[in-house]
Amino acid sequence: MQYCNTGFIPVKYADRLVALCCTLIFIGFTCSRAMVSIGMIGMVAVAVFSNHPKTLFDNFFKRNELWVLSLFFWIVFVSGLYSEDKNDWLNWVRIKLPYLFLPLAFAGIKKLSDRTFVAVLYVFIGTFFVSTTVILFNYYQDYRHITESFLRGNALAIPYSHIRYSLMLAFSFFGCLYLLRQRMYLFSSAEKYLQIFCAAFVFVALHILSVRSGLLALYLGLCFMVVHFLIAEKKWLWGVLLMAAIALLPYLAYQFIPSLHNKINYMRYDLGEYKKGEINNKSDAMRLASMKVGIDIWKEHILLGAGAGDLKNECAKFYERDYPSVSPENRRLPHNQFVWMLATTGIAGLLIFLFAFFYPFVLTGLHKQWIAVVFYLSLFSSFFTEHSLEEQMGTGFYLIFLLLLLNRFQHDA
After folding, report:
1. Domain spans of the chain?
2. pLDDT category, 36, cuts 50, 70, 90?
3. Is residue 293 within a helix (H) or strand (E), and if so which, with residue range?
4. Is the model's pTM score more than 0.90?
5. Which of 12, 161, 197, 225 is most exposed by smallest CB count within 10 Å?
6. b/e sequence 278-299, b meaning 16+ C-beta within 10 Å
């Protein structure tokens, strides 16, 4: 579906400006929250100034997969009706604003050209390649001390949330594979060697960083690709061999990558401490305690939750009751996206959340594209151990790539 351009920005320039906005957002993911916001605002401005307002809103409301994303905003907004802490509620509302404006922006953006789409993927891959190179260089500078610190539950210094960063890094790996499989290049086919190198680098880097959410996303995606290959090609021997390799690789990584080895050993120790009731300053133990606190909050507010504005206050109350030994700075909000929704908006909010999350994937044909399946697997798997969408970077990653994938594939549906 191509949209008429009746605004101030010609179509050919709108394409480039979208790519520029994506560049700002991707770089912002690694170094600047402000840059992420500027990129998002720029995306909206491109849509507004390249379309007649009536055309823009007509397209938005005609495309269910776009306006349904606004439900992420509305379930939090409505919870303000029964939240006592309006200041905290307004903070969560602010974080959810992209769910209103970015889908509206993409309602006015025509299908990006193949060249622009490749350029956008290259920028994403390149940004995380450079950022991860810097992280690994810093690790090398103090290798022994940092490696030993993994045994105490520490991690490499990673921009913002290490979980969200690792999910984006894992997706950059699949971005490389997508370009390779589709034979998509900016200038020449020689770029395939660069794509292979970047994919190999990211694969190794994810194991060195040792963030479990990123590794889970990586291996879930690889397993899906092998199953997809088996169904499409019917080469059963190759499929069995590839699955065996995928099963063997984590074991080899544990044996030969010290950071991952120490991370897994600490995880075992941490879970043992949780069973003993030793929670404070224990990474996984505090995460599990936060989930229990979230479930306890939901049990008192089953239908509508406690309200987004009152989540922190409710958590503090239950920590004081059940985990008084956990110091205030370690009293985390629920580290589980589903539990977060139950605690803040109840069973009603969780059902709306799941509907809004899966609708664009299932009912638009997006589920037929393997890169989209990998993207959803990565995010959905993280929901069990992280409130992945309750922060600017997670929201930005989810929305930008979902909308880019819809822009690329649904126009052809």
Report:
1. 11-270+334-412
2. very high
3. helix 283-300
4. yes
5. 12
6. ebeebbbbbbbbbbebbbbbbe
